[in-house]
Amino acid sequence: MTKNTRVVILTGAGISAESGIQTFRASDGLWENHRVEEVATPEGWAANPELVWSFYQQRRRQLLEVEPNPAHIALVDLENYLDNFLLITQNVDNLHGRAGSKQFIHMHGELEKLRCEQCNHVEIMMENEHLGEEFISCTQCEGRLRPHIVWFSESPLHLNEIDDALSQCDVFIAIGTSGNVTPASTFLNIAKFQGARTIGINLDPPANVYFFDEFLQGKAGEILPALVQKWTQ
Ligand SMILES: [Zn+2]
User: Fold this and answer.
1) Which domain holds residue 55?
2) Catalytic positions, please?
3) Which terminal CB of the chain, N or C, has fewer other CB atoms within 10 Å?
């Protein structure tokens, strides 16, 4: 890897889990003991907004208690070394930003932001007065705010920008995400199709491990710092 190598990173739940954040489990369809239909769909929000609001307020308050781990920090070092870098995360926590990453996309939204149901105004709201159980009104139009989270059946954010980066990258690295479900599998295919080297780092081997030119099994926080040091020497 040289400074000119164009690198796209995709991070998933595994990198957040190493900081103590539990996310949606595909194995049983539960997120912190709630069914996904209940807390991560527009229908769930319409049926019981109090429950959904309370669920995300807990997730938002949890951000104050967690810290970036060595994998987040290694990605900052890699970004600082490279001229052409994009980090795409499926995670909704703020750990990449807090670690110091700059070129990153939250394709599934961000816990620290809220969005107006009426005018779509999006704002970071992480002060104490924003983290209680009461609904909050929009600062622009007084509409009700909802979590700025991409729920199931809603469209991921910044897909054009992601597609542009993938179709021009030299190296694609998937970290803490099983490579066999979308979007990881789709991104992997796009990158591989146009000739990128593909690398996977995950606790469990993905079903499509053969799609990766290189697969490293283990904790990202243990594997990535040494790798980045090697790449950036
Ligand atoms: Zn509004």
Assistant:
1) 22-65+110-149
2) 108
3) C
